[in-house]
Amino acid sequence: MKRTLKSLVVISLLSLFASCEDGMVEEFQETLSKKDLITHTWKVADVKTAGVSILPVVTRLQCITDNILTFNPDGSFIIDEGANVCSPAFAGSGTWSLVENDTVIKWNFTAPENREVFVPIVELSGTTLRISYHFEDVPLPGTYEMVLDRQ
């Protein structure tokens, strides 16, 4: 009986500790700024329109599934194509910042060409970054979301 009671107490304490630990991680992530959350390396996981993945259908975009985006703490970024290179290339580099109350990422590309791109943040967590962009000069114009997983 004593052994059962001790086991029950130990299991209860371990469960309590484990649940507190999860809460501490979530609380820590909530205290990070959006810049801190974005400042990492991200891999393209999906591209969606109207909530539906278009990668299985639009084979031309499958080349971006191995793209890596790195947002550095100094405000620089690099987009690496990976082994599957798109045509035209999607690689680039430059600087980034958060604008509009930290709801939009402003990319100042310096390579391959100088241009500014503004992408609204749809979702940002410690593991996922979803950004939105409206395309006009493509066969299917519209707003697309890129889903990125933290590496």
Please provide a written account of the structure:
The chain is globular. Strands 1-3-4-5-6-7-8-9 form an 8-stranded antiparallel barrel. The chain has helices at 2-31, 34-38, and strands at residues 41-49, 52-53, 68-71, 76-80, 92-99, 104-111, 115-124, 128-135, 142-150. The chain has 151 residues and is of the alpha+beta class. The N and C termini lie far apart (48 Å). 23% of the residues lie in helices and 42% in strands. The protein has 2 domains: 1-31; 33-150, Domain of unknown function DUF4822 (Lipocalin), CATH 2.40.128.540.
Short summary:
The chain is α+β, with helices and mostly antiparallel strands and 151 residues long.
Strand order of the largest sheet: 1-3-4-5-6-7-8-9
Question: Structural class from helices and strands?
Answer: alpha+beta
How many beta strands in the DSSP annotation?
9
Largest sheet: 8 strands, antiparallel, barrel
Helix and strand run: HHEEEEEEEEE
Radius of gyration: 21 Å
Q: What name does the CATH topology of the largest domain carry?
A: Lipocalin
Number of helix segments?
2
Name the CATH architecture of the largest domain: Beta Barrel
Distance between the termini: 48 Å
CATH class of the largest domain: Mainly Beta
CATH superfamily of the largest domain: Domain of unknown function DUF4822
State the low-pLDDT regions, or none. 4-17
- Round the mean pLDDT to the nearest integer and report it: 84
